[in-house]
Amino acid sequence: MKLGAHMSIAGGLHTAFERGEKSTCQAIQVFTKSGRQWAYKALNSDDIEKWQAASAQALMIDPVLCHDSYLINLASPDETNWQKSLAAFQIEIERCSILKIPYLITHAGAHMGSGEEAGLLRIATAVNRLHEQQGFQDVTILFETTAGQGSSLGYKFEHWGHLLELLQHPEWVGICFDTCHVFASGYDLTTPEGYEATMSQFQQYIGLDRLKAFHLNDSKTGLNSRVDRHENIGKGTLGFEPFRFLVNDSRFQHIPGVLETPPIEEGNDGFAENLALLRSLLTP
Q1: Could you tell me the pTM of the whole model?
Q2: Residue 221 — very low, low, confident or very high, per pLDDT cuts 50/70/90?
Q3: Buried (b) or exposed (e) across 120-148, using 16+ Cβ within 10 A?
Q4: Is the pLDDT of residue 267 over 90?
Q5: N or C, which terminus of the chain has less Cβ within 10 Å?
Q6: Checking DSSP bridges between strand 103-106 and strand 64-67, what pairing results, if any?
Q7: Each residue of 9-37: pLDDT tens digit?
Q8: What is the 3-state secondary structure (H, E, C) of the chain?
Q9: Mean pLDDT of 45-51
Q10: For range 115-139, the mean pLDDT
Q11: Catalytic residues
Q12: CATH class of this structure's domain 2-280
């Protein structure tokens, strides 16, 4: 697995590469704009040139992943919010395309009481519309597995399997498997039997060929808690074993796995320490 972490873009998008190298990343994830605001600054030629130069110099980092804004809700039953989310998602895709970022990760959305079927249909309608209007075949959308908090969709593999059936171009999308979310939503990864059963279910409903990235996070909450709270590797309810299974699974040898773990202490994001722990789990 190509191990890395979510990097800050404070000081400019291009600074993520230097931070990634300092943390021993082989892959990085970034926001290309604020993840918690609708407003954004358009990319200018200086932003793009600095990004391209930094990318060319960071030879050990490949690929780069982007996470979209947390405000986007493609499943929203409210037309105004859905249209706003659709426009924002299109901008996210455009920015990835300009920066040559191959993967855009999204939580997709919450149905807000309209029901799971209606919510998944809204997501599919949004993605189908964007594909018809723009294409963006150089950017793959990765739907992220969720913990199922509130009315969030994607906490069951069946959700994404059904969504694939609703898409006009399913080849344009993949899945990002978040270990914390999957565990909190009810899939037990802590034993060899549970791990293999989870991957078998993923294969049954989605297909492992659709699994394009991992978010590697321990969980502060327990199995089937439906609460999304990340923890540092080995410090939560998952423990070390699920990560040992993952980093030694030959099926995922070339897939990026990025940390979204909380800081260990003020001034120390802990990514280098967490990556060292993950690498220590590798079997020679």
Answers
A1: 0.96
A2: very high
A3: bbbbbbbbeebbeeeebeebbbbbbbbbb
A4: no
A5: C
A6: parallel
A7: 999 999 999 999 999 999 999 999 988 88
A8: CEEEEECCCCCCCCHHHHHHHHCCCCEEEECCCCCCCCCCCCCCHHHHHHHHHHHHHCCCCCCEEEECCCCCCCCCCCHHHHHHHHHHHHHHHHHHHHHCCCEEEECCCECCCCCHHHHHHHHHHHHHHHHHHCCCCCCEEEEECCCCCCCECCCCHHHHHHHHHHCCCHHHEEEEEEHHHHHHCCCCCCCHHHHHHHHHHHHHHCCHHHEEEEEECEECCCCCCCCCCEECCCCCCCCCHHHHHHHCCHHHCCCEEEECCCCCECCECCHHHHHHHHHHCCCC
A9: 98
A10: 91
A11: 36, 67, 70, 107, 144, 178, 181, 215, 228, 230, 260
A12: alpha beta
Tokens representing residue 148 in the block: 């199922």
The HSE-up count of residue 158 (CA atoms within 13 Å, CB side) is 6
State the CB neighbour count (10 A cutoff) for residue 106. Answer: 24
